[in-house]
Design a protein that fits this description.
With about 290 residues, the protein is α+β, with helices and mostly antiparallel strands. The protein has three domains: about 5-70, Arc Repressor Mutant, subunit A (Orthogonal Bundle), CATH 1.10.10; about 85-165; about 170-289, Roll (CBS-domain), CATH 3.10.580. About 30% of the residues lie in helices and about 30% in strands. It has ten helices and 14 strands. The strands form four sheets. The protein has a seven-stranded antiparallel β-sheet with strand order 4-3-7-8-9-6-5, with no helix packed on it. A hairpin with a 7-residue loop joins β7 and β8 (about 140-150). α1 (about 5-20) crosses α2 (about 25-35) and α6 packs antiparallel against α7. The two termini are about 45 Å apart.
Amino acid sequence: MLSSTQREILDALIRLYEEKKVAIKGEDISNLLERSPGTIRNQMQTLKALGYVDGVPGPKGGYTPAIKAYEALGIEPVEKPVEVPIFRKSEKIAGITAHKIVFVKVPDPTECRAVISIKGDTRKINDGDMIRVGPTPINHVIIKGKVIGRDDIKKEILIDAYSITSIPKGRVEDIATKDLIVVETGMSLKECARVLMSNRINAAPIIEDDKLLGIVTLAEIVRAVAKDRLNARAIDIAIKDVLTIDKDATLLECIKKMEEYDVGRLIVTDKGRPIGIITRTNIIETMSH
């Protein structure tokens, strides 16, 4: 059975190897773990004899993790791994990622917990921290919850999950509204408001000759009325710097852009030509099906 020190060394070796894809020198592990080179050297000889690591001779030599090392830590080797980030207060925690998620107490009607296996220093996470894990690369699973336990030897944290979402696969074009409702450049405030309210929407673009000139929102109409600009036209109050997204972008890319700019809609384009609109409502409806 591996000691806690040996598990820590194997974890560091795997992290460095997955990052660099070359044989790792003992000095690199020593620096990462802040342990003496002698301790690392002695432990590596033991781990090599037990079949957990392979030695690579020569000037560029060092150590590489054997399959047995991955198995011992419950890690599956991936040829081109994608980092699954962990956030605390919307800030990414540097140096740690998630590599396995196991849900526990799934049938319990009052709570849902998840064990997150960590690559990196689990001591960067504390009990009581509110964290967000994900998205994962394929199903884009995102878990939010409170840390209620931590095992530094097994490199695991236990969270009380209060939110689990999965962003569907697909492209923006798949769920975007194709029939664009537009306003014309010369429309009055009253006419613009009539278009928006009759169609139960909060905004509509101005498009001429397949060019996006701006977008008129209810908020801009109200702002114009409040400033006594009653004779203003649609083009006068339109937001000119309109955020767009390509029709072939993924839904995850779309959500990230909405979050980055704190908007609820994006104009969908095809080679720069506006062809539709996608809103948060479109995405939520897709996720709820």
